Batch of 2 targets.
Target 1
Amino acid sequence: MDKLTEIMAHKRLEIAPLVRPVAIAELEQLNARLPAPPSFAAALRPADGTLAVISEIKRRSPSAGAIAENASAPDQALRYQAAGAAALSVLTDEKYFGGTLDDLRSVVSAFKRHAATARPLPILRKDFMVHPIQVIQAREAGASAILIIVRALADGEIRALHAAALAAGLDALYEIHNEPDLARALGHGAKIIGVNNRDLAIFKTDLAISERLIPQFPKNVTAVSESGIHTATDAARARACGAHALLVGESLMRAPDMPALMHSLRAAR
């Protein structure tokens, strides 16, 4: 069993007690009742021509082990905001990544407290999504987008998650790793596609995966390069192959001078 298969099996067991039928009308009513979150999709196409950086709050991972076990999600979010992040990715998986939904809620609350001095950033709920009930959780917590890992899901599950996200007023980031994943994502109408440069079966990272896949995207699809981006040189490689945005976690969490690294990634040419 590879690691992604293991994680998905655990996630299905974890949410099983919560699973129930979720009607599109319920999601639409939820969306109408709650304030609209900032647009994740719009944030990934900066008007100033810089690369958008989706900065990730990540305490640990199966590949890297402990990264910043005691990191405060709201404090890190505010630092990312001040450094020029376009959006955030907040990991809400506890067993493998050390995050919770409370992290997402606390980040949204921190942005509200500082709204007078800085615009709240859109937030991707980074988790292993398998059922629309998780979309309800994301919308109630204040997320702007959910993650759909194409390789990990059946087509029916993808359809259900995408429909739920649309009804709830959320964007969907489709994550792919190869050509069959790309074909499936496009078949489901994906508008934002992220290439995970890390093979989630063996956790090896290679930026050449973005360089191979992103040039195959239709022009109207927003391209995100994810994982394995540590330097401005890496960012420039992603930009050169057509990436509009980068998703960066570990290197920003570990950086001695995070604002300087953020600036170099955004400005990479």
Target 2
Amino acid sequence: MTQTCYPPVQPDARRHHILHWRHGLALAALAGSLLAGCSVLPKPEPVEVYLLPSTLPPPATPTPGTLLPLPLPASLRVTRPAAGPLLAGQRMIVQPEGDRVSYYKGAQWSESAPQLLRNRLLDALRSDGRIATLSSDDHILQADFELDGDLRAFQSVYRDGQVQILLRLDLRLVRPATQRIVASRRFELTEPASDSNLPAVVRAFGAASDRLALQVVDWTVGQMTNAAR
């Protein structure tokens, strides 16, 4: 058997190997210190997420001996209203003075403002019961009518030192089959908050959304009834 013999490592080569090893250790230590330094960066501020509160009653259910009014023989799809960049997200908007707009620090909605309002309209329509066949734009289903629009305001404003909620919604009732607008209307209302603290402002947002939704329900039912005649 042939045995291969390697020349012994010379002192200079051994010294070069040791220096290379020490250089690697130094680089590793430097990398570790840089990673450790990243841990002292400020942590992101915690964000509190708020649901939009509601006091709408649940859908009515028939009881023995009582009759509920017959629902309209037409279906309705409710879509998320269009909104600009300021209103399209989940940040809670406040208008402290004049035309200056800001956000509540460390707080946001559970969903975007257009989605919150669309869901509130659906809840109010189900609670009302006069339109039994309802759907949303989450599912592409055929419907006789469609309710869509543009969200213009969904914010708190300071007026004479008092916090008020301002909602402004431009709605259109459309026949999807023909893309014809049956009716359109602007809904706008304000709701005072009992206090300037955030929980009170959130409650006022909920109360304003309920009021707006009830107005939309009555208007929509009336317009669909007239269109069906």
